[in-house]
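Entry 14. Structure prediction run on the chain below.
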Amino acid sequence: MKRSTDRILVSHAGSLARPEDLRTMILAKENGQPYDGRALEVRLRESVAEVVRQQIKSGIDIVNDGEFGKGGFSNYARVRLSGLEQGNPQDLPAARNITGRDQAEFPEFFALGAGGVGPPRVGQPPAPAGGQNRPVLCTGPVKYIGQEEVQRDIANFKAALQGVQVTEAFVPAIAPGTIEHWLWNRYYPSDEAFLYAIAEAMHEEYKAIVDAGFILQIDDPDLPDAWQIHPQMTAPEYRRYAEVRVDAINHALRGLPMDRVRLHTCWGSGHGPHKNDIPLRDIVDIILKVNAECISLEASNPRHDNDWRVWETVKLPEGKSFMPGVIGHITNMIENPELVAERLVRYANLMGRENIIAGTDCGIGTRVAHPSICWAKFQAMAEGAEMATKQLWGRR
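Output returned:
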């Protein structure tokens, strides 16, 4: 995995705005609706090539495929795993809710339909608040059946990288614990057995990504945001819960070189109060146990911008690097590059400049009101990284 040996490198957390026609076709496929398979393959290949070019143009050094082969951040897993089937919402318990503690304190705010995963996109309704009660049940053995889809993603990304210059390339994949959030176990004898079955299955996807020569990014908002899903838990109980989920990640990563893996985690990243987010200090040691060289962490929004102080007393383990979010999805305002530079220099002074990569709080492209805002934010991040480089390396 590349380090910032002579300048601050720039990357991001993953999800980028899918062209609407592409998104419509992929969702139709994932939902078992009619679609033109040939048209989908052509459009997907074109779109991945274009989004790679846009990242490069915007100053991103470590690029991805925008997650364009997936209908959504977590929904894609349900079509890559066996043993799952649609169920009736009436058969399920209350929805798991990544804003549960906040909703108890601010019910009037959430009753307005606010607090979703982003502002309304142009021409689209706002995303729902707090998570959805998706009626997907586990009714049989969980096995990985997404070989064709992951190899398609790999092939399209490799084709898009032909003839362009990038520092490195990464592919995100969802973590077992976050998959567990949105499924209901009706087959395994315990939640832990279910979790480890998911981990065993997803190992195949993770290995395929690494074997293809890409950096694997494990996306796991579960580590902090399940604190809101389980409001009855005490902090010690939650730490035990999180430890099990990290063990499951590491089981799924077994045999993969740590220097080809990075972890992205956040607090669910909804546009809500986040007053009841579990503090980073309470779980940072657990996060650092993931067998990933690079840790990508939400760090720029008003709730977590001061989390840099945690690293005044917590030492980044030897061999690990850190990708703080220095721009965010929580606002359509474009960050001042000087502010981006200030954030990067602060972390570099704490952890060493070679250990810092400029990153985003979460996936920007699907969280702001228009893709043009995403690209402008990326440009501001790249400009800020250049300013930070001049300060840290003493360049004019």
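The chain has twelve helices and eleven strands.
Filed with the rest of this week's runs.
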